[in-house]
Target: RWD domain-containing protein 1
Amino acid sequence: MSEFAEERENEIDALKSIYGDEFIESEDPSKFSIRIESDLVVEKNEVLFLNISYTERYPEEAPEFEIETSEDSTLNSEDIDSLYKNLSETVEESLGMVMVFTMASYLKEFLHDLIVYKEELVTNMERLRIEKEIEQEQKKFIGTKVTPELFREWAEKFRVEMEKAKAAAADQRKGTAEDSKKGRLTGRQLFEQDKSLANSDAKFVDGDVPADL
Model:
């Protein structure tokens, strides 16, 4: 048995002990998978599968690996690209020693940070949405901000409206005066229309009413 083969066997035994049912064997002893899930208690958790294939000279050289997501994963292509990039850097830093546990630990930490980030993002977006709704509601009760230009425009309109109102009032007073003048009777007209006055004067003329002594 080569030195590399013994290191690989020892690593597999250790991984089985650590991950238990999450360590998934295959018919080929040089290939296996590890199911990785964050420890966060959230409504929707993410699950990844780290698929490992040993090379002849592992751990002196990097193993072949693949990251598999679950069918209902919310990870997008950008998340996956970032994951591969950072995991590849971890592999490069670990060359010369067994590294699958280090790789799996990194993926678990990545999932934890990603889920926390997305939860905070959703919370912040909801907060911003509520703040925007409140702002829109407040605008309904706030008048237009008065600027010097708006004030001058308003003052000019007010002056024109006041002049129109004054002119209308003057026309109304003039019309009322003319109507009153037209409808006013002279003293003679009033005298002639009031028969009682005419009869009363006639009595004085005829001497029917005794004069006071």
User: Anything to note?
Assistant: The mean pLDDT is 80. Helices lie at 3-19, 77-93, 100-139, 148-183, 187-193, 195-206. The longest strand covers residues 31-37. The radius of gyration is 51 Å.
